Amino acid sequence: MDRRTSMKIGLLCVLLGACSAVKIINLKVPPTYLLDQTSKTPDPLILDCEYEVDENEKGFVLKWLLDGQPVYQWIPSKNPFPFQSFKNRVDTSYVVSQEHLHKHRAMAIIKPLANFTGEYSCIVQTYASIDRRAAKLKIIVRESKFDLSYYSNGNGEVTVDCHARDISPLPKLQIRINHEQFATENLKSVQGENGLYNVSISGTLRKDQLESPAQIECLLAIPETNYNKRRSTTYYGFNATESNGASSLPVPMRTTTSLLATVVTILLIFTTTLL
User: Given CA atoms 41, 45, 51, 56 in this order, what sign does their dihedral have?
Assistant: First the structure.
């Protein structure tokens, strides 16, 4: 019986549920990985596939696939072999176990790219049997900038603006005023050649609709992950500087303070002269 025929029999055996010569017992693929672009030596992304296999099995091979395309292969008698865009992104010297049929089962990805998001499948097979398990992973690229601001546009209205730059995957933005969701325009997004997104939302309301002070928040979230960010500022009404909630003292208070300082200085000079 040749190798191809054996593999076909093995696949048929698995479909019928009649074979268990090799079996995946645990797939370790994290749901998210936060990519730190500022670090020169970030921690590798480790994908591990734990399985049981009979030492007497012949023709053992392990494969990792991303969205159905092979990215890594290991045969115990050979060195691990990364495919395509993973060729310079996998540490082939990484060892997860000293056991002969488990040594290089894990794939250690060095500096993952944003487009490494997807469904990862581990396939283990011999001439007699095959098993497969898959899990989804999202590579998160932290935004380079996340800002919230408001300004008066001169006609009795205030515009609130929130934007984030260089982030992936595509996030959601939401503006709240005093913890209530604020109606805004639809999310605007632009994807650059690097695959990262610039996103923004904004909305306008009349000043008489805003209490003073009012808390303004912008919430950023990446769907199906626990990645969340928040920015906040405070609106102080008509007698405050309407830029990022920064306020200044009213003019009369500043003037009174200056006059008091002058009087104190004169008294000190007069007292010194008498002494």
Answer: negative
